[in-house]
Specification:
- By secondary structure, the protein is α/β, with parallel strands linked by helices.
- It folds into 2 domains: 220 residues, 2-enoyl-CoA Hydratase, Chain A, domain 1, CATH 3.90.226.10; 188 residues, 2-enoyl-CoA Hydratase, Chain A, domain 1.
- It is built from 21 helices and 17 strands.
- Strands 10, 11, 12, 13, 14, 15, 16 and 17 form an 8-stranded mixed sheet that branches. Strands 1-2-3-4-5-7-9 form a 7-stranded mixed sheet, with helices on both faces. Strands 6-8 form a two-stranded parallel ribbon.
- Pfam families: Carboxyl_trans.
Length: 529
Amino acid sequence: MTILDDLTVSTAAPDLRRAAAELRRIKEEVSRGPDPEATRRQHAKNKLTAHERLAVLFDEGTFTEIEPLRRHRATGFGLEDKKPHGDGVVIGWGLVHGRTVFAYAHDFRVFAGALGEAHAAKVHKVMDLAEAAGAPLVSLNDGAGARIQEGVTALAGYGGIFRRNVAASGVIPQISVMLGPCAGGAAYSPALTDFVFMVRETAQMFITGPDVVQAVTGEKITHNGLGGAEPHATASGVCHFAYDDETECLEDVRFLISLLPSNNRELPPAASADDPADRRTEALCDLVPAEPGRSYDVRDVIGELVDDGEYFEVHEAWARNVVCALARLDGHTVGIVANQPAVLAGVLDIHASEKAARFVSTCDAFNIPLVTLVDVPGFLPGVDQEHNGIIRHGAKLLYAYCNATVPRISVVLRKAYGGAYIVMDSRSIGCDLSFAWPTNEIAVMGAEGAANVIFRREINAADDPDAVRAQRIKEYKTELMHPYYAAERGLVDDVIEPAETRSVLIRSLAMLRGKKAEVPARKHGNLPT
């Protein structure tokens, strides 16, 4: 039985007020859902309903729903007797911090949020509107995948979503929020978007579930162990942000949107800045040890540099030897890439290269200037790294920087050795401005390693090898690794005091704000895979 089946057919003259009242009643019932028990089950799992989630995401009272009365046309397997309005997905637009944003939200209470033909058509509609309007698109995912009863038409619906994901890539920000299950082919839509948020315990993503994994491989694992927020945030890198509850998650989605432009033709929105642009960052001299081998947390450096110490770290728990974060400098959004000496001494490896490359590419797509903080001893050596393609994956980061046309500024904090120095947005690959602190060491390799290679025979033949080695190391540092060597050769634009770093970055970014970069005429580049 449907909502309209209950209506009493009136023989009285048409009354617009009565019709409007009846429409309100129908829409209220659609919003409440077909079954109060289904809502209770949703809440029992610490999950909000689709409309409740949208109320958290959007500014109060601004969400406009479209196609709330749509119903499927499928028959067979009992579907002809179950035609709830909405068909398991809520679509529309509203305001987030006063800016237009589009969204669709699966309603798990209706067909477990499974996608059928009508459901897919609604999603296609809102995706097309978002791209046409040039506004961000947020998907709130909580669905059981393709609606099996509708067969191949459901699969075709996913194809239409994937095609639109790709068409909108780099045009409008696409944000996926995982609030429940997302299995099989459905998981590829979030993977095609710019950012993925997940809620621990309630959200899972996987191509094949635990039962299939056990049947094929013999491995026994839980749903969360296989595809929950934790493994995707720490091991696979599929998840950018993980949270304990939905409200906190959706609040951070709002914050991310505030840092991003509406589309690739706009600059990110500027905010008023109370933090003085000329604030000296004296604390940096104490945060960063002068000795190149001593560890520190580069996030403390980022916090000292950016407005009010506030930054939004992306992929915080994955590939932690590089830090990627969005922040503001003098009220303007910047993307920060920084080596992390506190993890693996800050070396670049396969995962760090992939993480940073994706972040650089995302910032470039949405006109977000890049600031790179360099303190890198090189690429991680090892058979595992070489056999798993560190050359290919390291090339992704190199490609991303070389391909980026946004303003790019690098700051060498301490050491920058070998190919890793080049890859971390050096002058030679096109950064607009390069600065260095007076403790910088820019070289092919560390002085100890260089001396052992260059003077190997002399050291081995000496009566006192240790003394000769120490002398040659000192000479190498004096000749090729003093802090002004790169500046003397124009490889850095200036050597600056750490305390001046914030003001130098802000002045430089202001100068580069109108940067125009010519790109070659080509269909597209061939990204290393």
